[in-house]
Amino acid sequence: MFLRFFRKNISPQNCFVLYRLAQAYSDEALLQAAVRFVILNFSRFCEGDDFLYLDLTSLITILSSGDLAAASELDVFRAAQRWVRAHPGTYHFLVNALMSHVRLPLLTDGELAEVQAYLGQVGDVQLQCKQLDGEERLRASGGLRAGMYDECIMCINTQILETQAPDTEDSFMDCYDPCTRTWRKLPGLKSLTHPACVALGDRLFVSGGICRNSYSDALYEFSSLKGSWAQLPSMLVPRATHGFLVCDQRLYAMGGWCGFHEFLSSAECFDIAEGTWTPISRMPYVLSRCAAAAFRKKLYLLGGVTGLTSYWQFHKGLLIYDVSEDAWTQVLLDAAFFSAGAVAMNNGIYVVGGYTEKRNRYCSRKCFFLAEDGSVNHEIAVPKLPKGIAYAGVVSWGKRIYVLGGEDTTHSWELSSESTRPGRPGPKALGPFAPWHFKGNESQRLHPTVASMKQMFF
């Protein structure tokens, strides 16, 4: 019982005490928890004396982890070097065992020289190196450590401002760092409105939209390593205001519309490794302007509109696509809505805001939580938004949900100009939601599409 208590109360002060306690009592769960704590706080522990008393198996688990909070790979090498020096007598065996877990392609030429000099002292070991560019280094290394990048929020405005010349200016793309509460301008895409975006690691994918009054089938990739855009193979169907998600290294584009009043029920999948699009099962009905989230190898399209006559035809339910079965399931809800936001976290999906159907459509402050089967979980109470809002960008970061931009029936909203000024603090995150500071502006709309993405700095 007391060991279970310790697993939930590991701190920097007791971490290594509990590590030794777990070894003494052969408590594998406590041992894993202590090692995990070292991984997440590597920079704090790697130069301390306690680090030298880790056993070899634990050390290898730490050095091989992609979650390692190391600012540079040289820090990882130096930690291994210190540990080896503290265990003399088996240099050759230990060096070979540990160096296989150091990600050499992440080292600079000067750092590689330091590593080679050390290896020359402990044995006749020569590094086999070749010249690689940034992306090649990243692929050859097996990926960055968690401490080598920042998780940021990418925000792309999906509407051209009325004051903006669409043929000459980029659509807005900004990067927000919730840790420092600062914004940074990034290169956008020319004349593109109403696209959808999703992030995978350090890559941002943008699909479809409307470009110079034509519906687009284009797929673009933004690399945070290069800081530039590249065009990938086009979708099978032009689409805008569609669902766009990533699951198991594949992108999924679903529904939307390919012309005014031309709604889509088709869906397709892009294999990132192969670079090819293939159709997937058609949706049970046409659907656009839905919220979308991926959760446990299932894709959720929530609310939305199924047509437009003299008014929007609200969808009173959601669709669930099972990736492994290539099949859709329909789930009914008590209320109809569209242009809401959705994020998957905490064993379910949070649905935020949107337009709700009553006598007249209105912007809702309501937020609710869905279980994996699509049913509303009333036991989890989600606080209302400070303002009723739709078309907002909704994204999870850490344990918080951020809501950016959007509009209601009488106003459009944008982030405070003071908040978006480079180097100035951004809005504060309060409670389970991060209520942003909005201001009304009739001429400038911010309908963002957002994603949480790795920004690298190695």
Automatic annotation (TrEMBL):
It holds the Pfam family BACK. Keywords: Kelch repeat, Repeat. This is BACK domain-containing protein. Residues 15-116 form the BACK domain. It comes from Crocodylus porosus (Saltwater crocodile).
